[in-house]
Structures are given as structure tokens and as C-alpha cells.
Amino acid sequence: MGSAEEDYNFVFKVVLIGESGVGKTNLLSRFTRNEFNHDSRTTIGVEFSTRSILVGDAVVKAQIWDTAGLERYRAITSAYYRGAVGALVVFDITKHQTYDVVERWLKELYDHAEPSIVVMLVGNKTDLAQAREVPTEEARMFADNNGLLFVETSALDSTNVEQAFETILKEIFHKVQQQKQRNSQSNTVALASGSPDGAATAQEEKRPCCVAI
Amino acid sequence: MVVQAKKRELKEAQKRKKQLEERCKLEESIGNAVLTWNNEILPNWETMCCSRKVRELWWQGIPPSVRGKVWSLAIGNELNITHELYDICLARAKEKWRSLSTGGAEVEGEDAGFSAADREASLELIKLDISRTFPNLCIFQQGGPYHDTLHSILGAYTCYRPDVGYVQGMSFIAAVLILNLDTADAFIAFSNLLNKPCQMAFFRVDHGLMLTYFAAFEVFFEENLPKLFAHFKKNNLTPDIYLIDWIFTLYSKSLPLDLACRVWDVFCRDGEEFLFRTALGILKLFEDILTKMDFIHIAQFLTKLPEDLPSEEFFTSIAAIQMQSRNKKWAQILAALQKDNREMEKGSPSLKR
């Protein structure tokens, strides 16, 4: 530890959710390690990855929780939404069923996460355009109507993966900044920022050790 | 210089000789163990399985050639599943696959339509997961030698226990059994294994009962590794973060396969408590580094264990874990916690989670 990776100003907890097999784990490995695995293993429970990016002058460390997509697991995984400031709801553009259930995923998310959570709808597997079942415009409209960010990605050929994560992290960052300004007026800053070891300032909510917005 | 080089050469040769001797010794001891298992223990299973000598030999790891037999005997067949029943379940599964792939003409009212969709999802999921089960071994993937076997066992199980169906994690368990047993016997062991209380609680995702298991685990965690326990508490690192994956797959996804099989050996001998003892053994083995880590590093570490886990140290570490807390054994602690839960639920339904 103690490496450059550990020098950050903010930690944002972001959850990856969506049906089994839509490519959550590969989106994450593409973003954090620039890797793609054709036969990645089934995720059981939850797996973790981190990556720090620069937003303006600030180093933002994304702490990403990659959850299992199995419906039956939801009782377990929904506990993992607590303290998340961002969520990527992923579907597979070649399987309409994975898009149909996005609304259920959102409900699940809003039931367990903070209402201010930044949510992005992600249509993955654009490399399989010939098998597309979900038109881009349909998904974009749904996202617009529901106040979600939207992007289409391909973890396989890297299209938009970086952009997806950067966009959501920036959006969270701006929300946090606004909150900070509001809070500075009322003199109650509830942010765990500016501390290189992150843990020092976020005492009571250390698990996500990130900011509450 | 020449003298030195010669010396070095001699030393190397001695080292090689010693390594060879050790390997021979190891192979010999495995060979002896196979004989003991085949000639003495297996023919007299009922009387010998619980003897001290057998238990000790068992701990050393069951030789791969008799592993399947021992697992079958130890898991037992409480459910009285026959090879015929497996064939029947498999035939039903195949029929369903056919009717689903041809569009299905079996819709009988709305209920049936709904369950057909459910089944379809379950079958899709099995297909999806098979290729994601031990991908490195390349034997369960499409076209691999055990692809159809794994598919058959999982499909047959969804027909045998439609109330449980297919749940992720099962493919790993079935795969390990397939590596050690013939298909029908693997199915029998699989169904009986999943029927055990701990496995049923997890695979039916009985959240309340799972939390009870985690609570029991924490009692022994605190007892055995108080410092690390406090560190985890301080970091809000709850056991579900790492235990879910370990318990659902019986360590077959997180440990190297040979180590996982040795864990299975003793799990077959000692039952569910060994799964939790193994977890504590892992925590103990890495206690020093874990104590220096924060939440995210611990979580990352435990959900992706090092690939070069030293097997002897690992088992020494497990052996050092005491499964007794204030004179109470695992089963007693678990039963007491379950009783507490039931009383709480009865007393104040509002407290129910």
C-alpha cells in the first residue's frame, strides 16, 4: 500500500447491478485493469475493484462493488447498496429480457440506496450490433424519463467503458461539490475528503469510507 | 574456482537427490494410503469410518483415486436416490429443453405460462454458467468432455427439486463432484449434499438463517482471532462479504482445486462446521497482513485469495482453530442463536428482518 494509488481526495462507492451475464464483471475488469475475459467466472456474492481517476484537481478513487446478478441473490446483495453514491445498471443490448427488468433493478436500488444516488443505465455488448434487440433510442428515452445517465458500451472492444465510469464519477463529484458548498454555509461538512488514508475522517461510516451526498 | 564450481555442482546434485527422495516418499505414502483405504477402510466402512486412525489419515487428504468413493460414503444417500431416479429426472429435463426450444405447446393457463418463463430463465442461466465454471480447466465449456454431464446433472436437479431450482454456485459443486465420480453417483452426492441444513439455507437463500450462520461464525471468529475480529468490526467488514462465495461454492471457486478438494475431504468428515473452521483458518493464515489493511483491501483480498496458497501452512492454520466457545460446540452455538431468533420473531414481529 502507501503507493500513489493511495493518494486520493475522495472515495466514491459505486455498485454494478443488472442481470446475470450482461457483462458487469468484464466492464469492471476493462475499466480497472484493461482486461477482458471471454470466460470470466460467475460472480457469487460480491467482488471488488478500485481505480483512481483525476477530476479537475482532485483524485477520485472509485471503489466498485460488482454484485451477482442472480435474482435469488437479491435479498443478500441489496444490503450492498447502502452508502453507494453511484450505480451502473447494466443490460445486454442483445437480450431484451435483461432490459425489461431494468425497472425492477431500479426499484430495488431506490429501496435500499440513498435517494441522491447517481444512476447510469448502461447498454453493454455493442460489439454484437448484428444481434441487437434493444434500440438505442428506446433505452435513451427510458433513461431520460427516469433521470438516469445513459451510455452504450462494449467491454470487449473497450468502446465507451472509460467514458461511462468517468462520466458517472464526474457527476458524483459535482454533486458532492454542490453539497459541500451548501454545507459550508450551514457549517456541517459531512464529507470524508482530503485525507490520504480516507479512513481518518470517515469515522462512523467507515465501510464505504466515502462521502454521503 | 574450479573447486568452488564442483562444490556447487555437488550441492545441487545433493539437493536434487533429496527432492527426488522426498517425492518418492510422498508417492509411496500416497500409494500406501490408497492400499489402506481400499483394503482396510472401505470394506469395513461402518465400523472404521469414525476410528481415530482413519480420522487422522482422512485429515492428511484422501488419495484422488479413492476420493469419490469416500465422499459418496461420507455424504451418504439419505434421500434414497437411485440411478433410475436420476435417469427419470434427466429425461424430464431433456423433454423440457426440447419443448422450450421448439416454442413449447404446453401452456395450460397463465400459471403454466409463468412457470415456463421461469424455467426458461433457469435453463438459460445453467447454460450461461456452465461456460463460466472452472473456465481454466477447459473441460466444462461448450465442446469440452464434461460439458454435457454438468448440464445434465444441473438440469436433472431442477426437475428433482423444482422448489430449489438452479442457483449460482451449484455449477461449481456439481463440477467438483463430476471430476471425482460417475455421473449418476455425482448426482446422488450432489442432491444429498445440497440437502444438508447449511446448504439448504444458503441455496434457498433463507436470509434469516444465513444471518444466523454468520452470527455463529462470528462467535468463533472472536474466540479464535480476537484482534482481527476487532479490526474487522472497526472497518465494518461483515462476514457475508467473503463467506457467501466460500460457502456457496464450498471453496471450489476461491481455493486452488487441489486444496479445495482437501477441504471437501474434511468437510465430508466433520460436516458444516468445517466450512466455517476453514474460513477461520484462512483468516488466521493471513492475520498479520489483514490487520494492516483497510476495508476495501481486505474485501479485495478475501474475495480473491492468492493463487499460491501454501497447502501445509494452510492446514496447520485450520488445525489451530478451536471450534469450541466457552465449552460450547458449533452445533450448540448455532442452535442457541436459532432459538433466540425464533423467540424474537415470536415476541415482536416488527423486529423481524
TrEMBL record, chain A:
Signal sequence residues: none
Keywords: GTP-binding, Lipoprotein, Membrane, Nucleotide-binding, Prenylation
Main location class: membrane
Region Disordered, residue ranges: 184-206
Topology of this chain in the membrane: Lipid-anchor
Protein's job: The small GTPases Rab are key regulators of intracellular membrane trafficking, from the formation of transport vesicles to their fusion with membranes. Rabs cycle between an inactive GDP-bound form and an active GTP-bound form that is able to recruit to membranes different set of downstream effectors directly responsible for vesicle formation, movement, tethering and fusion. RAB25 regulates epithelial cell differentiation, proliferation and survival, thereby playing key roles in tumorigenesis.
Example of a GO biological process term: epithelial cell morphogenesis
Family classification: Belongs to the small GTPase superfamily. Rab family.
Gene: RAB25
UniProt xrefs under Gene3D superfamilies: P-loop containing nucleotide triphosphate hydrolases
Molecular-function GO term, any one: GTP binding
Protein name (database record): Ras-related protein Rab-25
Subunit annotation: Interacts (GTP-bound form) with RAB11FIP1, RAB11FIP2, RAB11FIP3 and RAB11FIP4. Interacts (via the hypervariable C-terminal region) with ITGB1 (via the cytoplasmic region); the interaction is GTP-dependent. Interacts with ITGAV. Associates with the integrin alpha-V/beta-1 heterodimer. Interacts with VPS33B.
Subcellular location: Cell projection, Pseudopodium membrane; Endomembrane system
Cellular component terms per the entry's GO annotation: cytoplasmic vesicle; endomembrane system; pseudopodium membrane
Automatic annotation (TrEMBL), chain B:
GO molecular function: GTPase activator activity; small GTPase binding
InterPro entries from the UniProt entry: Rab-GAP-TBC_dom, Rab-GAP_TBC_sf, Rab_GAP_TBC_domain
Cellular component terms per the entry's GO annotation: cytoplasmic vesicle; vacuole
UniProt feature coiled coil, ranges: 3-30
PROSITE patterns xref list: TBC_RABGAP
Superkingdom to which the source organism belongs: Eukaryota
UniProt-listed GO biological process terms: vesicle-mediated transport
Residues annotated as domain Rab-GAP TBC: 61-271
UniProt entry keywords in alphabetical sequence: Coiled coil
Name the record gives this protein: TBC1 domain family member 14
